[in-house]
Structure formats: structure tokens, C-alpha cells
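It is worth pausing here to work through a concrete case rather than discussing structure prediction in the abstract. The textbook approach is simple: state the sequence, then state the predicted structure, then interpret. We follow exactly that order.
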Amino acid sequence: GANIEASNSIISKCGQYTVACNIGGTYNFTHCTFANYYINTPSILLNNYYEGANGNTYPRGLEEANFTNCIIYGNLTTEVSFQENKDTSFNYNFNHCLIKLDPTIDTDNSHYENVIINQSPKFANDTESDFHLTENSPAIDAGIGPSDIDIEGNSRNTPDLGAYEFVEKPFSSEKLLNYVKEKQEALPHFY
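Step two, the predicted structure:
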């Protein structure tokens, strides 16, 4: 199996899984956004075996697959595929993550800590691969710290989930004009 560590990463538009933790190994992902809207395979594959050309199954322990402050989302009803062989280790943990999962999966156990299940992360525009969070995203301030900076160099004081920290943008000129217009219309009119 592999040994992979990744942080502040966006993995999207893959031909199959965005990440395949396959044939055992050790994996640690922090502040990653896995967004698979491209094809009909889940974003994440967790697997602890392989099948040889001869049809035999060979166990390979999944020593660790840790996801911390991550977003795992896409267009399927579940974005994590669990393929477990009971003959070897199958260790995974989702800690402070937003995950799209089959609602029949039991998340009331030690594999899931402070997770948000089946709520849209409210990306700015997933069809255009803009995975910034919008102001009403449940991923805002839902992370566990400490964290330094996001993928764009923004500070993470109370960390958000995913690769991007939400940064409130100042009023655009159009938004400002609409705001002023609303306030003017609310004023009493004297004739």
C-alpha cells in the first residue's frame, strides 16, 4: 500500500474516484476538497485488498485513512465507497468533515467525529469547478484547529472545511448600489 499525505488540495473532475485508498496503506488528508461531479463513481474509495488476475483475493491492511477538515461531495447519493475484507485491518476516520453518504450508513461510531452528513457545502459554482464556500455554507467555522493558511494563503483562525477558507468579500459596486436603493425605497416619501 501507499503512504500519502495531502493538505489544502482540491481533487475534482476525475475519470473515476478522486482518491483511491486502495490495496492498504497509510493516508492522511487535511483541508482537502474532494468534489466528483464528473462520472458515476464515488469521490473516495477505501479498500484493504486486491483481486489478482487469477481471481484470488489478497488482503492488504488499510493501516490509516484519516480525513480531517475535508469536504467530500459530488453528484451521487454516496461519495465514499467502503470495500472491506474482514481478514485484515480497515482503519479510517473522518474528523470534522462534510461528507455525502448513504443515509443508511451508521455514523454513530469512532470512525466519524463531528461530521456534517448530507448537507450541501454550498460551493460558489461546482459546474465551473469553483469550490470556494459561499456565505451560508455549513462548512464555515466547522473545522478543528490549529491551521495556518488555506490554498490561497488566507489565514485560518477558526478553520473552515475544505481547501478554501471563506473570506467575506467587500461589497461589489452593484451590490452596494442595490443596498443603497433598498434603503432609499424604505425611507418615507414626502409629497
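Step three, interpretation. The mean pLDDT is 91. DSSP finds one helix and 17 strands in the chain.
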